[in-house]
Specification:
four-stranded mixed β-sheet, three-stranded antiparallel β-sheet, 8 helices, 9 strands, about 40% helix
């Protein structure tokens, strides 16, 4: 089977609206050939380019029009494509843990790569560079909790904040984050220490 036939077969196999990376096609052809085939498929409208190396199999719903993938799915595929570490921004982490009701104006993620903004159709995704040392356990509940606390800041969190977090995660997830103290900023580790001292009887 030719490279273009293999790639078309792969695209047919993935769900509509699903992003994918050019790097996921490397078993079918060399990089230059993949690039040429993808450019051809973009021109024919069979796929759309989200950003360099990341593409989308379009999905249309007659009553709603084109359906775009979740920002988190775009970020996941971009991380696979570039090799950079991408994690939920602290503001979104705090919202997911119900520590704030504020919804970010647009999806924003931390990245070990360059700060940049991706624009696709009417979707805008911001990537904000941070020191990789601040990307603690990305993709885990523990990492989400630490990111949220670092975003809220030392002056805005107390042991009551930890109690609130505990209500929104499983026992195993909370235990996981308490075992990550050596990776936390000192003030976050101190906060967990004080919490455990106050609640050691529970």
């Amino acid at each position: 089977m030719s490279a273009i036939a293999e790639i078309k077969k792969f695209i047919v196999s993935i769900p509509e609206g699903e992003p994918f990376s050019a790097s996921s096609l490397r078993s079918f052809a060399c990089t230059d050939n993949i690039r040429q085939i993808l450019n051809r498929l973009v021109k024919s409208g069979e796929i759309k380019r989200i950003t360099r190396g990341v593409f989308l199999k379009p999905k249309f719903i007659s009553t709603l029009g084109e359906q775009l993938p979740l920002a988190s799915d775009i970020a996941r595929v971009l991380a696979e494509s570039t090799g950079e570490t991408i994690a939920v921004h602290g503001s979104e982490a705090a919202r997911q843990l119900q520590l704030t009701t504020q919804v970010p104006m647009r999806p924003i993620f931390y990245t070990s790569g360059n700060t940049r903004t991706l624009k696709f159709a009417n979707r805008t995704v911001k990537l904000q560079h941070v020191n990789p040392s601040k990307l603690i356990a990305p993709g885990t509940t523990g990492g989400l909790i630490i990111s949220a606390l670092m975003y809220l800041g030392k002056e805005n969190v107390t042991t009551e904040t930890i109690s609130a977090i505990k209500m929104h995660v499983s026992f195993e997830e909370f235990q996981q984050v308490t075992m990550m103290v050596e990776h936390m900023p000192a003030w976050v580790a101190d906060l967990f220490f004080r919490y455990q001292q106050e609640h050691h009887h529970e």
